[in-house]
Design goal:
The complex is a heterodimer of chains A (267) and B (350). Chain A is an alpha/beta fold. Chain A has a single domain, classed as P-loop containing nucleotide triphosphate hydrolases (Rossmann fold, 3-Layer(aba) Sandwich), CATH 3.40.50.300. In chain A, 33% of the residues lie in helices and 24% in strands. Chain A contains 11 helices and 10 strands. In chain A, strands 6-7-8-3-9-10 form a 6-stranded mixed β-sheet, with helices on both faces. In chain A, strands 2-1-4-5 form a 4-stranded antiparallel β-sheet, covered by helices on one side. The longest helix of chain A has 14 residues. Chain A is globular, with a radius of gyration of 18 Å. Chain B folds into 2 domains: 88 residues, no CATH class; 214 residues, MetI-like (MetI-like fold, Orthogonal Bundle). Chain B is 71% helix and 0% strand. In chain B, helix 4 packs across helix 10 and helix 10 packs antiparallel against helix 13. Chain B is globular, with a radius of gyration of 28 Å. The chains are: A alpha/beta (267), B mainly alpha (350).
Chain lengths: 267, 350
């Protein structure tokens, strides 16, 4: 990751997603301070750090989900293809369509079957599609779920196993053809087999889209991500300690705290 | 080397998503423009009065909203038009509601005098001058009967819901069917039933009989509402409790019911709202009385019957008393609901 972003505040016109001096508050509580990061196009960035260091808050700031929390506030800029997504006149609905999100707990819609769940985003956004079946197949294939569910697309989403449900949620996010995918601990409730499959899915997806994922699993961050960003709160607001190529973070971190954390000495 | 120094300068928190001030301004302009348009429509056509102006406004608002936003694209325009239609519909619902309150207040407040809430009608005929008599006996009667009915119907209704949802007993479907059927029972039939059983066999009209008639009407509302609330308790909570070795009754009373305590208050409120204004069943059970009384074995007064009997005389003072009783009844309902709301927020804050 480029170290210039950490200090300069000038607006760049780089592709991908970039934050400039982002802060977050919940009511008066200062949860996140001064995070400047660049997520280059078609890469996977892992956000790591102990619980409560603001990773998830930061992730939710990236597609304007932060504002759903009452009394939340923010500062700084989030640049998506050079444009601030918090600028006046920007439609948050459009932002969330282009920057998809998958949550920690799989949440397929209970009133829809598997196929309907995949195209739920299009239905909810009232986007017309010519060939729904082809889209369902494409998304499920990209999420690595097609072979397991192709014979029972009419079954309810809740009938799948936890890992399958999570991949269904990824497929659902993919149907809107987002340019960025945000994943908030997508594997924390999954078994190793399902985790492996979701990780493979993430690596494949990163060929065509930018992925930012929060993870508590150091091995996962090492396996999947190209870049890593280490957050820490140290009693005050969460902040960025170090961001670099994943190989550097794990083999040759610049900060002692990063070294301690990735080697499991605290957190 | 890519470590970060956190800037010590903390910027001002902002909420770029908060457009409430802009929305307020926009709605203000919208209502003003639509108001003028409605007034124009009013003077140019045969419409007149407040309702005529409202009809004009109802037509104008979606049009103004559309014209004002169409340059920003179809999505926003349809959004704004939908908002305008909803606002107009909201106002349409509010008009009769406010009208009832205003009418009852205007006519009912004329019946008020310094002792209206503390005196009864023991030596005052309904047609007497307003300065005599009061509604104290009716307030006491209504509060007593509603309280007794609630004490019976609320626990019974909640237990019925527990039987259907938690215990899932052999007769659960039957109980659900019966409560459903009971909610359709006309109130006069409930009164007749108590008349034929309690009144005829246990010594005539009484506050007891009135309360029991109200129980019959309250029970299905409380049971059905509690059932729907119980159903949304996540199964995880029950599982977690069972996994700690808890019995079903401990799980139900210590975990499930406290979780939905504020919802159960709502169920009770709906039940009370169902019966507090009932007149027909009380005519056949609690009958009519003119003095303050707290005896459960005697006939007793109640606000609905006070209103009903005063209105039936046709005399001007009696009619004013009926309006006064209506205002007091609205006040009683309002106070009961306020108490329930307070309890409910207390419970859910815990």
């Amino acid at each position: 990751m480029n170290n210039e972003t950490g200090t300069t505040k000038e607006v760049s016109r780089r592709g991908g997603l970039e934050t400039v001096g982002v802060h977050a508050w919940f009511n008066k509580h200062h949860a996140l301070a001064d995070v400047s990061l660049h997520f280059p196009e078609n890469t996977v960035t892992g956000l790591i750090g102990p619980s409560g260091c603001g990773k998830s808050t930061f992730l939710r700031l990236l597609n304007r989900m932060h504002e759903f929390i009452p009394k939340a506030a923010m500062a700084g800029e989030v640049l998506f293809e050079g444009e601030d997504i918090y600028a006046p006149g920007v439609n948050p609905i459009e932002i969330r369509r282009r920057i998809g999100m998958v949550f920690q707990k799989a949440n397929p819609f209970p009133a829809m079957n598997i196929g309907e769940n995949v195209i739920a985003g299009l239905k909810l956004a009232r986007v017309k599609t010519d060939d729904k079946d082809a889209l369902v197949e494409e998304c499920l294939t990209r999420a690595g779920l097609w072979n397991e569910v192709k014979d029972r697309l009419k079954a309810p989403g809740g009938s799948l196993s936890g890992g399958q449900q999570q991949r269904l949620c990824i497929a659902r996010a993919l149907a809107l053809k987002p340019e960025v995918l945000l994943l908030d601990e997508p594997c924390s409730a999954l078994d190793p087999g399902s985790t492996l499959r979701v990780e493979e899915t993430i690596v494949q997806l990163s060929e065509t889209m930018t992925i930012v994922m929060v993870t508590h699993n150091m091995q996962q961050a090492a396996r999947v991500s190209d870049y890593c960003a280490f957050f820490l709160s140290e009693g005050g607001p969460g902040h960025l300690v170090e961001a670099d190529l994943t190989t550097n973070i794990f083999s040759n971190p610049s900060d002692q705290r990063t070294a301690d954390y990735v080697q499991g000495r605290f957190g | 080397m890519t470590t970060f120094e956190v800037s010590t300068v903390v910027p001002e928190p902002r909420r770029p998503w908060d457009h409430s001030r802009g929305t307020l301004l926009r709605v203000g302009v919208l209502v003003a423009l639509s108001g003028i348009f409605g007034w124009l429509l009013n003077t140019l056509t045969g419409l007149s009065g407040f309702l005529g102006w409202y009809v004009g406004l109802a037509f104008a608002m979606p049009v103004v909203a559309f014209v004002g936003s169409v340059r920003h694209g179809w999505n926003l325009a349809s959004d704004r038009v939908a908002s305008a239609v909803i606002t107009v519909a909201f106002a349409a619902v509010t008009i009769p509601w406010v009208s009832i309150f205003v009418t009852v207040y205007q006519k009912g407040s004329k019946a008020f005098h310094s002792k209206y809430l503390t005196d009864d009608m023991r030596i005052t005929p309904s047609s007497d001058v307003i300065q005599n008599g009061g509604v104290a006996h009716a307030i006491i009667g209504t509060l007593m009967m509603v309280l007794i009915a609630s004490l019976i119907a609320v626990p019974l209704g909640i237990l019925a819901a527990v039987y259907i949802v938690e215990i899932k007993g052999r007769f659960a479907k039957l109980v659900r069917f019966l409560t459903q059927a009971m909610s359709g029972v006309p109130s006069i039939v409930a009164g007749l039933f108590i008349y034929a059983t309690v009144v005829v066999f246990f010594g005539g009209f009484s506050a007891w009989a009135g309360s029991l008639a109200l129980v019959i009407l309250m029970l299905p509302t409380v049971a059905r509402t509690s059932e729907e609330i119980l159903k949304i308790v996540p199964e995880d909570l029950r599982t977690a409790s069972y996994a700690l070795g808890a019995t079903q009754s401990r799980t139900t009373f210590r975990v499930v019911l406290p979780t939905i305590a504020s919802g159960l208050v709502t169920a009770a409120v709906l039940g009370i709202a169902r019966v507090v204004g009932e007149t027909a069943p009380l005519i056949l059970t609690a009958s009519y009385f003119v003095a303050k009384s707290t005896s459960l074995n005697e006939p007793i007064a109640s606000l609905p019957i006070y209103i009903f009997s005063s209105l039936g005389l046709g005399d001007e003072n009696a009619t004013t008393r009926a309006w006064g009783g209506s205002l007091v009844l609205l006040g009683v309902v309002f106070i009961l609901f306020a108490i329930a709301r307070t309890i409910s927020t207390r419970l859910s804050r815990k």
